[in-house]
Amino acid sequence: MKTLNVDVAVIGGGTAGLGAYRSAKAHTDNVVIIEGGPYGTTCARVGCMPSKLLIAAAEAVHHIEKAPGFGVHPQGEIKINGREVMDRVKRERDRFVGFVLEGVDEIPAEDKIAGYAKFIDDNTLIVDDHTRIEAKRIVIATGSRPTWPAPWNDLGDRLIVNDDVFDWDDLPGSVAVFGPGVIGLELGQSLHRLGVKVKVFGVGGQVGPLTDPTVMAYADKAFNEEFYLDADAKVEEMVREGEKVHIRYLDKQGQEQRMEVDYVLAATGRRPNVDKLDIENTGMELDARGVPTADPYTMQTSVASIFISGDASNQIPLLHEAADQGRIAGDNAGRFPDIRAGLRRSKISAVFSDPQIAMVGETYKEITARLGTCGCFETGVVSFEGQGRSRVMLRNKGVLHVYGEQGTGRFLGAEMMGPNAEHLAHLLAWAHQNQMTISQMLDMPFYHPVIEEGVRTALRDLNAKLHLGPEMIKHCLDCGPGC
Predict the structure, then answer these.
(1) pTM, rounded to two decimals
(2) What is the extent of the structural domain holding 102?
(3) CATH code for position 417
(4) Over the stretch 411-434, which tens digit does the pLDDT of each residue have?
(5) Could you tell me if residue 340 is inside a domain?
(6) Which of 180, 145, 185, 141 is nearest to 161 (CA)?
(7) Tag placement on the chain: N or C end, fewer CB within 10 Å?
(8) What is the rounded distance in angstroms from the CA atom of residue 367 to the CA atom of residue 384?
(9) pLDDT digits (tens, 9 = 90+) for 311-351
(10) Which residues participate in FAD binding (predicted)?
(11) Is 448 annotated in the active site?
């Protein structure tokens, strides 16, 4: 068995691991990166990018279907060629992965260790049965994987996760989606719009990542206008028969229903990949899920020489967060013991459904937990149903809630469902990171007519409720209501 002595060992070759490796290399050349599977990121291979390719195809169909609302009538039946759809998804997916692998190829061969690492102690790793690594510092960046209830394994290859969808050669006839979170909503709606018969089931009433009950109720209603979604489903039986899955469930009226589908898509959450690292051989403190706890500003665990980043940390499982955490963890592992707090940006997340869902800063749940419901904060509201530019584009569905602190007038966060929510969220995230007040945000320029004017309307509503500004302007005097 070969033995290596290194300054920093990074476990994992995804977004966080590659970022950690590059940051550590800025301080020392003696760094290795360990990967047991294919290099590349969850985002490029089976996450953000291929899902957006599928969404783009679904949006193309939806635009054609909406055209008669503008007086434009496409001729003939809309034909969806599932093989062509999936061929483009896979071709473009592979292109994105290729870009990532080009960066991996630039890593010196001697720095890349192939295999799966396990801890022997706080500073020792063994990779498969071929390499022992004595590392002064270690970064865990092993990512996460989908999870589902164990009894579902009886469904065999009729049970799929998002990874499997992007390997399809053709679109199936029917899919039952379990989990109306980010993945379930994006894939479920896209498949529905591409002609697949889809029903979406959840547990506990949760829709997406939303925590504001009013915004969540709106989202539930909006999705149900397009496809079946029961966020608190009562599924009585799910069994495989041949190449089909038979599901027996109670509908929203309590009536027993039966359905037959080609696949069951499990979008029921992800699990950090730390359970096979033998972390019990270290002195790291673990949370209730068995994940090492870490300082969110330094990514340092309770063992000073071990850092953790990305989805493996179970903090904020998003690509931009994984990249930030990887850079912070790698920088601190490289410069150890000179530990420094890294830049942590304001939280921003999006669901690329239609209408889109987005959240910025503190969530409604976090604000109420911190401030209670005693009037220490207020909520500004706007509906996009009457908003000028949204109606022009026939995209007038959605609601935005912005939260502000009484007394200081500081902008705390936002939750929304609406057109172009991904862009509105960026606008609000920049304001949140700069710790702006509602009044300061209202001093910023707003063009006309744009969807962003809906943000201004919500901010005006909030400012009036905070008693820090003029009375709310209910109608635009220049070009009518909703601007």
Answers:
(1) 0.91
(2) 2-144+271-335
(3) 3.30.390.30
(4) 999 999 999 999 999 999 999 999
(5) no
(6) 145
(7) N
(8) 24
(9) 899 877 666 788 899 999 999 999 999 999 998 889 999 99
(10) 52, 142-144, 311
(11) yes
